[in-house]
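agent> fetching stored inputs for the alpha-D-galactopyranose docking request
agent> found them:
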Amino acid sequence: MNGIFSSSLKRLCATAAGVALLCVFCGTAAAQQNTVRITYDPSSRVFRMDAADVTYVLGVNEQEQVQTLYWGKRLSSNDAFPPAHSPRGYSGFDLPITITQHEFVGSGGGLYLEPDLKIAFPDGNRDLALKYVSYKIEGDALSIVMRDISREVYVTLHYVLDAETGVIRRWAEIENRTGAPFEIEQAAAGTYNLPRGADYHLHFLTGRWAGEWNVEDEAIRGGKIVLESRRGTTGSQNNPFFAIDRDISKDQEQGDVYFGALAWSGSWQITVEQDALQQVHITGGLGAFDFGYHLGPGQNFETPAFYGGFSDQGLGGASRLMHRLEIDTIVPNAPHPRLRPVLYNSWEATEFNVDEAGQVALAEKAASIGVERFVMDDGWFGQRKNDHAGLGDWYVNPQKFPNGLKPLIDKVHSLGMEFGLWVEPEMVNPDSDLYRSHPDWVLNFPGRPRTEGRNQLVLNLARPDVRAYVVGSLEKLLAENQIDFLKWDYNRNWSEPGWPDVPPEDEKNVYYDFTRNFYGILAELRATHPKLEIESCSGGGSRVDLGVMQYTDQDWPSDNTNPADRLLIQNGFTYAYSPGLMVAWVTDSGNSLGRPAFNLPFRFLSSMQGALGVGANLNKYTPEDFAVAKRFIAEYKTIRETVQRGSLYRILPPESGSEQSATEYVSRDGSQVVVFAFLRSSLEHYAYPTLKLEGLDVSAMYQLAAFAGKAVNGTPAVASGAYWMQHGLDTGLNGDFQAAGFTLEKVVGQR
Ligand code: GLA
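agent> prediction call returned; pasting tokens
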């Protein structure tokens, strides 16, 4: 990764402070874009990291605390930093420790800020004072070891920089060398500190089932804002993502933005806190609510990673860096994951009423319009007739599929499509063979109610026997059937999170071990079935995060497939996550009262902004519908690389109640531009805005073509990047649920 360090220098630099001078030498090498540069200056005890357009600087102060000195736009390599200084206390009420820009701080010594680590020792002591011990620089990674002043608790802070985006991946490793167990009561990956300022705004994502991905913002004032999930999994009430800017101008493309996200699919928290000196601290890690981890002597505990990045190109720039990070470094097969195939899913057409003949009929119709992957949803297993029974029994229902799944799968394959199947492996219905034989396998407190959600209970995945059962039943399913894809669902959150089979002091380990085992199962299945692809679904978008993304190829943002609602839902999703991972089906949703509320082109254009799928009841399609669907799917295949891998510009976000929205995607090589424009409803005869494009080459010429709707007002067929960006494109959209789609192709050799 690091093009600066020669391997021998790297080895020398990898040693601790003793040979620090050599690292200064490493650090004087010329900076280049798209490389990572990490240096240590032993005279000032300052560490400096540079990658892409970002510089991150930290130092060891005279209290031996590790302190942030700078995070922001890349500085000159000649800029030197003075040593870190512990601040004087603000007053007797705000001691130095609570106004220091700590990279990682233990709970104790008069700290009122959110701690990164809180430990309760068996002798009752709950004071933890971590001091700098040593460091290591290895290529694109820096690690710093800290230790408590009197107890053998070691914490290693890890920093890995991404050369292309400048995004930092941070996590901490806690080591118990005290000779006795202790209880971790709170653990974060680390803290990001912002330059002092009273004008910061937090942008974050909230939501609920069928209404995920609302974009919210809030001024950061004195005190603490908490984004979190107390639910056992990621949740949609908040998503573990933040973006902070200094100006609430609503301009998507301007201004400094600090952003970040947690790679964790269990309970989590991100706190944003302004202290007495108006310094802002962002701490992210495991959710503190009901948390505990009993760490035995000699054991290590690794926190989830907390990614952090900086953009001076507004929220749009921050999103593009997140998208690039995900596609190029996080998802399976990064940096070259497969483009998402166009899928068909049977759920909204058949719900639980699946059988061979019905699915074959849908598969034939799906193939005829150009679908590449056919997915059979819920209802195929156990005694599953509705959502009251069957979860946990992963055998093929013999009444619905008397010949097993093979004839259906063979048929799907013979139609040239991949075959996918819905599963929900972490759950069990009380009405199931599994629950009847293993009632002790669910999360529960003995003698207490077992609260059901969607008539189901949560299996305790932290238990080795449950983990083995889940792996075994899925392995059997995959061995007996040629399954190319699993839609992995998760349809409720936790209640009564007890684990009665372990000693009481270990029970809370469930919060961590459950999620680790979830990842372990996904990793194991992928290792034994390298071609298998998996979608993360949780009754919609309740488990979308950078953690699960390491093991899954795509994400389901919402069960709400109404194409107008989806404009908002998908807009919010893209603040944090790539459109190339966002599955969007064209369905019949909204067709109540027996009349189509939305025309089919509107539906297709809404879904073509992500990974296109179809979930409509194709048995009801007319010949005209089939023709429209076929045309749009064919069109999508010519633009999908741009949509899924390109740079997204939210040129008209459907926020603050706006009826209008437009998105633009520029391919990585800049040769193709795709524009979607939507109008939910014309209000008071206002004309649709002229769309000023972004991210084009000002002097190149681009040829415009409409694949839906049209350009009006004498829009030229060919014009310069400058024209499209400064004059813009007129769509003339007018009426209700109107949409248009355009491509602009760069004209080769013409400037
Ligand atoms: C969840 C999913 C849906 C569908 C149903 C099946 O709600 O989000 O897409 O798979 O379960 O029961």
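agent> quick read of the result: Confidence is low (pLDDT under 50) at residues 1-32.
agent> awaiting further instructions
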